[in-house]
Amino acid sequence: MLDDEDTVTAEGTPDPRKAWETVLASIEGDLLSGRLGPGDHLPPERALATALGVGRSSVREAVRVLEVLGLIRTQTGSGPQSGAIIVARPSGGMSLLMRLQVAARAFPVDDVVSTRLILEAAIATQLASGPFDLSPARELLDSMDAPGLGAADFLALDAQFHVSLAAASTNTVLAAMMAGLRDSVEGYVLASAPDADAWPDTAARLRAEHRGIVAAIDAGDPDTASARIRDHIHGYYLQTTTPKETPW
Amino acid sequence: MLDDEDTVTAEGTPDPRKAWETVLASIEGDLLSGRLGPGDHLPPERALATALGVGRSSVREAVRVLEVLGLIRTQTGSGPQSGAIIVARPSGGMSLLMRLQVAARAFPVDDVVSTRLILEAAIATQLASGPFDLSPARELLDSMDAPGLGAADFLALDAQFHVSLAAASTNTVLAAMMAGLRDSVEGYVLASAPDADAWPDTAARLRAEHRGIVAAIDAGDPDTASARIRDHIHGYYLQTTTPKETPW
DNA sequence: GGTACGGTGTGGTCAGACCACATGCTCGAC
DNA sequence: GTCGAGCATGTGGTCTGACCACACCGTACC
């Protein structure tokens, strides 16, 4: 039933592409052409399989890729919310990619930190240069003032604060990258958190630095905002790691 | 390793994780613990399936994810080169992720361009501040001097030039991001290339700007290098698009 | 009118069967 | 002994068919 039907029906070209790549390419084409867009449902896996002349397992591999890349959300059951829906949430995929690359030693932690430093400095510069909505970041600052916050909880809020700065820039790419960079080293940050004795002092310093960054942004002072971000990240990194040769 | 089967055999917890997530988590754990590293082979799919108590299709979904993320390379056949080998080449996954997110309208092209601008400016600053090996970039500049180069060929070299600058910074994360940003808008760049009449002038200008950037880096002048990169990218972007409100 | 219940369609998973391919070994020819 | 052809083996790649769990939706019953 399937013999010659795929692709060039009359020609001998047996389609060198793998079956799942065919599916991925087809969906990407539908996205580019506008046939698919945010909020739309992908066809059911079985329908996609017969439509493209591949097995359902190949369709599933492509769908799985789209899911981990944050392009779609899948749900079982029936009804409007079931099936594979295009959602386009990049941060999840970015985080997974970076986390695994760090785990596989392709991304040294040093590089992740310096990249984060570059991005955040640029973000701070940008935020200080124009009117942006920093209220989510401010709320996180207030949350971090809560007394008795443990290191893990504080650092979680800290991470959200930095990501919220990226989000405030309204640059979705920047925000996704920041989220990915943060998540990829989350384990290392938590593992190197100061112990309970030194923690209160560290937390106090971090709070002050955060406020200082936002203050510089509010003051419309890009250079100071950028410099304070640099010191903030760089300082914390140096504190929690064995200094070896000052990454860039 | 966790007790196989469905986790707690005696308990009612039926493992809420999906089967392929189990596989992915297992491999990630092996990477983090050092049991797996660059160059190593993943166990055969069938062995992995029985070892984790899941079906081979679930293993394949996880392997597929690792492959598109650039973590492994798969090959059929037998022998040392066959199977799934950990390679950790991040750029492929970064490119796919960004390309699809752009296709799904989650990443506006404007954001991609401004992010690229930020990253390249930072890279130029860094390159001008220390000794780095720019010879790959120089060779690309020479290649771009070849007469009679078409727009498509020139732009391909152009893209490689910019990525080579990122690679010269020795920051793997930065290099991967730059490659991804480039690839994600490749289609748009090619589609908006000037026609044959205007092309020679454009190419000449781009050549001169590239040389100017490298010259500033060689001169150890971070500010000039950064400014020239900004003008270079921004200028080209404005030229090829309908200006609307000057992205960032 | 409201509620319980079963039909239906979705993704999630597994098992088994082939295929194509690369390797490496065996065995025969010389 | 050397060399080459050819088969055995093990890998990923794919398809098929079968279930399951789940969420909805319509119908029949109360």
Q: Tags for this entry?
A:
mainly alpha, 248 residues, elongated, Arc Repressor Mutant, subunit A, 3% strand, 11 helices, homodimer, DNA-binding
Overall pLDDT of chain A, averaged? 88
Count every beta strand of chain A, where a strand is a DSSP E run of 2 or more residues: 2
Stretches of chain A where pLDDT falls below 50 for ≥5 residues? 1-11, 242-248
Distance between the termini of chain A: 61 Å
CATH class annotation of the largest domain in chain A: Mainly Alpha
Shape verdict of chain A? elongated
Q: Quickly count the domains of chain A.
A: 2
Give a short synopsis of this structure.
The structure is a homodimer of 248-residue chains. Chain A is mostly helical and 248 residues long. Chain A has helices at residues 19-33, 45-52, 56-68, 90-103, 109-128, 135-144, 151-168, 172-184, 186-191, 199-218, 222-240; strands at 72-75, 83-86.
Written description of the protein model:
The structure is a homodimer of 248-residue chains. By secondary structure, the first copy, chain A, is mostly helical. Chain A folds into 2 domains: 19-86, Orthogonal Bundle (Arc Repressor Mutant, subunit A), CATH 1.10.10.10; 91-240, GntR ligand-binding domain-like (Four Helix Bundle (Hemerythrin (Met), subunit A), Up-down Bundle), CATH 1.20.120. In chain A, 63% of the residues lie in helices and 3% in strands. Chain A has helices at 19-33, 45-52, 56-68, 90-103, 109-128, 135-144, 151-168, 172-184, 186-191, 199-218, 222-240; strands spanning 72-75, 83-86. In chain A, strands 1-2 form a two-stranded antiparallel sheet. In chain A, β1 and β2 (83-86) form a beta hairpin. The longest helix of chain A has 20 residues, at 109-128. The N and C termini of chain A lie far apart (61 Å). The relative contact order of chain A is 0.10. The model of chain A is unreliable at 1-11 and 242-248 (pLDDT under 50). Chains A and B meet through α1, α3, α4, α5 and α8 of A and α1, α3, α4, α5 and α8 of B. The structure holds a DNA duplex (30 and 30 nucleotides).
